[in-house]
Here is the input.
Amino acid sequence: MLFTALLLLSFGFLQAQDVTVKGSVSADGETLPGASVVIKGSKNGLSTDMDGAYSIKAKIGDILVFSYLGYKNKEILVSGATTVNVVLKAESSVLDEIVVVGYGTQKKKEVTGAVVNVSSSEITRSPVADLGAAIQGKVAGVNIQAASGRPGEASNVQIRGLGSVSSGALGPLYVVDGIAYEGNPNIAPEQIETIDILKDGASASVYGTRASNGVILITTKKGKVGKMKVDLNMYTGIQNITSGTPLMNTVEQLYHLEATTELLGDEPLTFFFNADALDFDTDFVSDVQNDNATIQNLGLNISGGVKNLTLNFSTSYFKQDGVLINSGFDRLANRLTGQFTKGKFKAFATFGFTIENRTQEPFALYEYSIGQAPWARPINDIPSVGQNSVQLDVDNEIFYGYLARQLDNIDERETKSNNIALNMQYEILEGLTYKVNLGRNEWNYFRKFYRPQYLAFGRTGVYNATASTPNALLNEDYIFSNRETLENIVNFSKSFGKHKVNLLGVLSYERFKRRNLGIGVIFADDASNDLQTLGAGAEGINPTSYNQTTTLSGKLARIQYNYDEKYLLSASYRRDGSSKFSENNRYGDFFGFSAGWNVHEENWFNVPAISSFKLRGSWAEVGNQNIAPYQFTPIIESGVNYPYGLNENISFGQIQRRYVDPNIKWETTISKNIGIDLSMLRNKLNITADLYQNDKKDMLLQERLPPSAGVYQPRATGVYDVKVINAGDMTNKGIEFAINYKDRIGSDLKYSISGTFTKNKNKVTDLAGIERGYANGRPTVSLGTNVEYTTFLAEGYEAGAFFLYQNDGVIKNQDELDAYKQLDLSNVSAPQLGDMRYKDANGDGKIDDNDRVYSGSGQAEFEAGLGLNLDYKGFDFFVQGFYSYGAEIYNGARYYAYQAGRHKELLSMWTPQNPTSDIPTSRRNGFHSNVRAASDYFIEDGTYLRIRTLTLGYTVPNLDKVGIDKARVYVTSNNPFTFTKYTGYDPEVGGDGIFTRGVDRGNYPVTRQIMLGVQLSF
Here is the structure.
C-alpha cells in the first residue's frame, strides 16, 4: 500500500516536472525558420529561429504542437526527452486541390486551361447580395461592374473583355451543380461552396455554343459526415450616397435667371407667377434620396450526415432599402442538398427556392429632380384641395406636376424561382461510370404598375389637364419560364504505369419555354385610388402576349491524358444544334485543345525556391447563340389595326412587322491562351500569369434599317427597325496576372496578401463595310429621341467607344465669332458671343457628323485588385481595394443640369460682364449647341481607386463549455472610400456593359455601406 502511494507521488512529481525541450523543425530536407511551437491548450509558444531551431520550457505530459504554413501540424508528447527534432509533412499541396472543370473535376496540377477557383471564404468576405459584387477585383481577367446601385441589381460580369456587340449577349454561361441556367442564377452568396471560372476557350469549349463569354461553375454547399453543425450569420447596417450634382440654390438661381433673360432682351417673371419665391430653398434631389437606408441579412446553414448520407440546408433573408425613395429589394433564398452513396451507386440532389421582391423608383427620378426650380414648394408640402386633388403654386405646373404625381406610382416586381438538380452515377466497371443529370429551372415574374389619379390645379384654382392624370391606370405583366435539362454522361478513367487517361462522352438535351402576358385597365374618373384591381377597371388596355420555345442538343467527346504528372494533354469536340437558327445553319462544331507541362516534376529541375512550375497553352473554338428566338424566319404579328370596308371601320390586323435574315448562324470565337502557374517558397508565394487573344467572327449584329423600310414604330426603337445579321469581327487581347503570398510572423500573426492585374484591349476589326455605325448611348432618359447618340461601333476602336464633337472653347470676342462664322454651321445653333465653338476636325469647312472624333470609351485600360488579410490572437482584419484606370465617363447628370440651367458651374458662365469665362452661356434651350449631347465637354476621366471592403472582426475564445464552436463579431464597410476626379455620382458606371458603359445617365448610385455582424457556429 505504501509502495503504491510512493509510486503515485513519484508519477505526479514527474508529471509536474519542468523540462527544457529543444531541437529543430524541418521539411523536405530543409529547416523551417519561423515555424510555430506551442504548448497545446495554452498561449505559451515561440517560433523557430533562422536555422529552424527552438528551445521551450514545458512540463512532462504536455503536448507540443508544431505547425508551419503549408504543412500538416504535428503533436509530440513531452515524456522527458530534452531533444526532439521534428519533420513536418506538406499539406495537400495547392496543386493537389480539386478544381471543378466542365463535366468533372481535376487536381489543379492537372489543369491545362485558364481556370480559377474562388472559395466560399473569399466569396463571403464582402457581405453583399450579389455573387458578382462578392468577387469584384479578386479574379484576374474577370471584369465586374455594377450595372447600377439599385437594390437587387446584378452586376455586369465580363470574362476577358466584351463577349459580343449585343448588350443582351455579354454575360457568361452559369452552371449550378452541373445544370446550365438561362442567365444569372442570382444565388445567395452564403449558399455557394466554390466558384470555378473557365476563362479560356479550351476550358469552356465543352459547353460549345454558349461558351464564348466564359463559363462560371457554381457548386453549392453540401453536407459533411459528422455531427450536425449549425452556422448563423447576421448583419445589419446603413447606406449613404457620397456625391452628387452641384446645383444652384434659390438666390443663385434667381441671379442666373436674371443674367440669361437679360441676354435674351427680356426680364424674368418669377415673382409675377410666384410672389413667395424667396420663401423656399428646396433641394429636390435630397428630397428624393433616402440617406441612412437600412440593409440587413440573416443566414442559417445546417449541415451533417452519416457514412452514406449527408444533408445540408441553407436559408437566408436579405433586405435592402433603396437610397432613392420608392425603391428596395428583399430576397428569401432556401436550398436543400443531399448526397447518398451505396456501393457503386452515388446520387446527389439539390432543390432551391427563392422569392425576390423589388420596388422600383419612378422613371428618370434624378433628372426630374435636378430640373425643378429651387424656389418651388417641397413635394411633401403640396396642399391638398380634395380627393386626389392638389394645388400647384409653381410657374411650371406641368414639369413640377410630372415629378409629384410620379412619386405616387406603385411599381412592384415579384420573382419566384425554383431549381432542381439530380444526378445519379453508377460505376459499371472499375473506372467506367455512367451518370445521368436531370435539371429543371423555373423562373416566374410578376410586375404590378399602378398610376393613380392625380388632379392638379393652379394657384388660381384652374384645372391643369396636362399636369394631371385624370384616369388611374393599372398594368400587370407576367412571365412564366422554365428550362429542362437531360444529360447522359459516360466517363472512363484508367491509370497504368505512369499513364493516366480520362475519356468523357456526353449527350445533352435542353428545352427552354417562356410565356409573356401583359394586361391592363383604365379606371373611371370617380374611381378610388384604393381600388387597385383589374376587375375595378372601366376600360381594358389591349393585352400583349407571346410564347417561345427553344431547344438545344449537344454531343461532346473529350480525352484528357497525363503522363507521370509531367505532360498533360486535353482535347474536346462538341457538336451543338440550336433551334434559334434555320435548318441549314442549325448545327455547329466546336473544338478545343490544351496542353500543360509540370516542369518541376522533371528530374533535372532542381530549384529549391520553386515548389511548382507549370506551363500551359490552349486553342479552341467556342460559340455564341445569344439572340432572341425566331430571328431567322418571318412572323405574322398582331397589334396593327386598320380601316376596312366602305365605312372604314377599324379592324384588327396582322402583318409581318420585322425583317429577318434566314442565313444567320453562330457567332464564333477563336481563343488562344498561354499561361504559367508558379509556386515558390514552400507554396507561400503563388503566381499565375496568362496571355490571351480571342478573335470573334460572324458577330450577331442588330442592323439598323432605313426609315424607307416602313418598320419604324413610335416608342419602339430597336424593336422592329432592326434586323439580326452576321457581320463583322472583333478581337480581345490581354494579359492577366494574379499573385498571392501567405505567411506568419511568430505563432500569433498570420497574414496573406493577394493582387490581380488585368489589361484587355478590345477592338472592332470589321463591320461589313461600315466604318462607324450602330449608334447608341444617349446620355439622358427623359428628353426623348431627339437627344444625340454618343457611342458607336467603329473599325479600329473599342466597341461602344465615344465619338464626339470636340469643343474648342467659348467664343469670347468678335474676332473669334467672325472666324467661326466662316465655317458652314448649318448643323449647329446660330453662334453668338458666349457660345460653344466646335472644331472642324476633318478640315472640310463645315461642322457635321464627320467631325465626330474618337473620345475614349467606358472600358478601362487596366484594372487591379489588392487584398490584405491579417489574423492575430482572435482578431481578423481584411481590406480589399480595386483600381480602374483609363475609362472615360460621359457625365449625363451634369449635361442634364446644364440643359436645365441648374448646374452650379453656370453661375460663372460667359456674360458681357464675365467675358473671360470658359463656361458657355445658358440659352434656356435644352437643344442648343451649348448643351449638345454629342459634345466632349461633358466627358470626364473615369479612373478611380476604391476601397471595396474594410472589415475588422474578433472571435471570442473558450466558448466550448457553453456549446458554441465559434462566435465572431465584426464591423465591415463596403465602398468606404473612393478616390476619383469624376464629378458625378459614382465612377462605377456599368450600364448595359457596352453602349451605355461609361454613360452616366443619372444612374442609381453605388452606395457606401457600414454594417455590424455576428457569426455563430454550434
Summary: The CA atoms of residues 777 and 996 lie 5 Å apart. Confidence is low (pLDDT under 50) at residues 1-15. DSSP finds eleven helices and 57 strands in the chain.
